[in-house]
Specification:
It is built from seven helices and ten strands. The chain is α/β, with parallel strands linked by helices. It has one domain: PAC-like subunit (Rossmann fold, 3-Layer(aba) Sandwich). A hairpin with a 2-residue loop joins strand 4 and strand 5. Helix 1 packs across helix 4 and helix 2 crosses helix 3. The longest helix is centred in the C-terminal third of the chain and has 20 residues. Pfam families: PAC2. Keywords: Ligase. GO terms for molecular function: ligase activity.
Length: 337
């Protein structure tokens, strides 16, 4: 392995010996960033809270430019505004005055082991005690129900009451591989994965970053406000509902997903007395069990969704199940690369 110390460089104005942050949040993109959840999450934190740059990774060493081409403008007779990929470590101060780290950027395409080794070194140097990853995946769930979070951890006692999900083999993401490697090194890592409706995978879906903010606050004991995300959620929900109402096909599919979701919840007889109302983990686990029980549906065409964001090539599935059989959503078992 090449020396991981040469992959990351602290900002010249930063003396790393003075930085001691308990939590590091990592949102390096994976699975196409369903619902633009990671992008919105990062933008919200950086636009809402005080922050400074701690350092940057040499992204040029770990990116595959042919696989993920950066944007550039052609202006009549010349090129302009080339945007190289950037992997940046920020220090952010939450609403209560507690600092934490945020590592943002695209998912590394090359030298995964070396990137993890560099992150592990940063964890040591900055006294990080807990790493939290935040990402999203497309799933056959309706937008009219709460966004659930799949939670994973390097130690089960990091997530009290969290129930394990089913087992299956899948294509690895960098965050998944990193979680395993850091766990093998004795690090505490909690992973949060927002479930985004498949038919909104390529659109901005503010409910997903809202779920991630709440999840990060809960597991890391931070105080990040929701701020403008709540207004963005109301506006997006109105636009989505309007477009669904205009399409009989989409209306039938959303209704089918709602029915299956509600039927599953009712069949599991979740307690509803005041002292036994299920918490978010219990509801999320119930949904996870349901999704694992779905039969595999047939691939169908990709009907027009509500306002896909222009974010370049998307790698996550964005179709809306099987339009010929709306009662057969696609199998959520393995996210697509």
């Amino acid at each position: 392995m090449l020396d991981p110390l040469t992959l990351f460089q602290y900002d010249p104005q930063i003396d790393q010996r003075t930085v001691h942050d308990r939590v590091m949040v990592i949102t390096l993109g994976s699975y196409g960033d369903a619902g633009s959840a990671q992008a919105q999450f990062d933008e919200h934190l950086l636009n809402t809270l005080t922050h400074r740059t701690i350092g940057t990774f040499d992204a040029d060493q770990v990116m595959d430019y042919r696989g993920h081409r950066p944007p550039i403008d052609f202006d009549r007779d010349h090129y302009d505004n080339y945007e190289p990929p950037v992997m940046t470590l920020h220090e952010i101060t939450d609403k209560s005055g507690s600092p934490f780290l945020l590592l943002t950027g695209p998912e590394p395409a090359l030298q995964w082991e070396r990137v993890v080794a560099a992150i592990d070194r940063i964890i040591d140097e900055l006294d990080v005690q807990l790493v939290v990853t935040a990402q999203s995946v497309p799933m056959p769930v309706p937008h009219t129900r709460p966004v659930g979070l799949l939670k994973v951890a390097t130690r089960s006692d990091l997530l009290p009451g969290n129930q394990p999900s089913g087992s299956f083999r899948m294509s690895a993401s960098f965050l998944g591989m990193m979680t395993q490697r850091l766990g093998e090194s004795g690090r505490d890592v909690i992973g949060l994965v927002a479930r985004v409706p498949q038919y909104l995978a390529e659109a901005e879906f503010p409910d997903a970053p809202i779920a991630l903010v709440r999840g990060v606050n809960e597991v890391a004991n931070l105080d990040v406000p929701l701020g403008d995300l709540e207004q963005a959620s109301r506006l997006a929900r109105g636009q989505i509902d309007a477009q669904v109402q205009q399409s009989e096909q989409l209306s039938q599919m959303v209704s089918a997903l709602e029915k299956q979701y509600d039927t599953f919840m009712a069949d599991h007889s979740l307690p509803m007395s005041e002292d036994q109302i299920p918490n978010a983990d219990e509801i999320g686990q119930a949904v996870e069990d349901y999704l694992a029980s779905l039969d595999t549906g047939n691939d169908g065409p990709n009907p027009a969704g509500p306002g896909p964001a222009d974010r370049g090539p998307q790698t996550g599935p964005a179709d809306f199940g099987n339009p010929d059989h709306p009662d057969q959503p696609e199998d959520p078992g393995e996210p697509k690369d």
